Amino acid sequence: MLTVPIVLGVxxxxxxxxxxxxxxxxxxxxxxxxxxxxxxxxxxxxxPTPSWGTMLDAGRSRLFxxxxxxxxxxxxxxxxxxxxxxxxxxxxxxxDPKSRVYALSFGLQDLGFRKAPLDR
Length: 120
Prior knowledge:
- This protein is mainly alpha-helical.
- The protein has one domain (18-111).
- The protein contains four helices and no strands.
- The chain has helices at 3-41, 52-60, 68-95, 97-105.
- Helix 1 packs parallel to helix 2 and helix 2 runs antiparallel to helix 3.
- The longest helix has 39 residues, at 3-41.
- The chain is elongated, with a radius of gyration of 21 Å.
């Protein structure tokens, strides 16, 4: 009697796990952009506390004199957001068996995908 809920729970979790990973990494990227946007508008933490959005706002007045004050925080935000998205995509490709079958059907075995049995 106890094995049926356990089997259903394992089957449900194994199917939902790749989608949860992608949603979590996209949510992380959205939170980073939201925090930087609020910091740029001045609605974030107070000035002694560092924030990339606050750094962008502070460097805006000196954009022509010292462009590095805005370039480096902007590049850091973009790198972190893109890295988060690429990490989520990579984890989904590694965990989701359907994405492996999709990659194998297009001949992408050289990209590190192993052959997986078709579960139909």
